[in-house]
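Question (not urgent): is this output format expected?
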Amino acid sequence: MHMHIANAVQGDRDIETTFVDVPPPGILRKILAVQIPGLARRDLDLQPLRYQLAQSAWVRYLLSRRAHEFDVLHLYTQSIALLSARSVRNHPTVISTDATGTSGAYLLPYRYPTAHTASRVRALRHFEDRALHAATIIAAQSEWAATSLRDDYGIPDEKIRIIPFGIAIPGPVKRVDPPGLPEVTFTGTSLARKGGHILLDAFDRHLRGRVALNLITRDRVDPRHGVNVYRDIFPGDPRLAEILARTAVFAFPSTMDTFGYAVLEAMAAGAPVIASPTAAIPEIVVDGETGLLVPPDASKLAEAILGLVDDEPNRIRMGDAGRRRVEERFDARLTTRALLSAIDDAVTLFA
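Got this back:
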């Protein structure tokens, strides 16, 4: 996301931007964020909050050192601002978010919600409320996120901007119909986080011999006939565009994604998308128009994939509609312009 925004503001003479990424955790931050056996299973160890507080401590230190170096502050997301309410309040600030702590607490891929999750959310809210209410403007990436800001946090409408951060859209894509079986592609750094295991289950039980499966992931995958695993593709790698150009169906059965840049990349390449109706995904994938929304169930996922694989006209229609939707709504040049407008508004309102 930072890469797309940075590319979109290049050459803009009206604003001088400095991008700072929170560095990977060192030993101390890793220790502070370690899960506690037994308590973690009950969601009682506050591990997600401790991780966010460790990040926020680094950000607070940075802001204290560089407070006089910027005119306006943009923070993504509020999870790194939990300890910086004072800095946020003392500067024109835009906080962007894809999910609130309340809505995101039940979507963590490595931690199942329990009866104690609500208590963890209350502990987070002690810090999160202060940061959000201190911000001049909050940019929600979706209506789903904005609804939680309004209903759960009492953020007034006039303080919220809905800005679905987009991607740099490639030029016209030449679709490729490769020899052999139709190709189904999945992209996700972690299979568990992005629903990859559901797709593998669907392949093993229903799709073997009907499609070839491309998995772009960092995880190791047991060898399977008909499955191609790419563990060395990173953002910007031209091989991704080549794979998406020959993809018949892009499958993204994630149950935790709050937005989904992989989905936008597939749609920009003209591939129809099958995804889970989670969080803001339905605001990207229009069911029946640019793809299909199906529950994260292996049998239903396989049925949807085969339905599109066997219906080439519908597949092409959805792929073309997805490309148009990305061009109209999720072009990084347009969405970054909206973000810069919100930043400009923050400066005006703060004054």
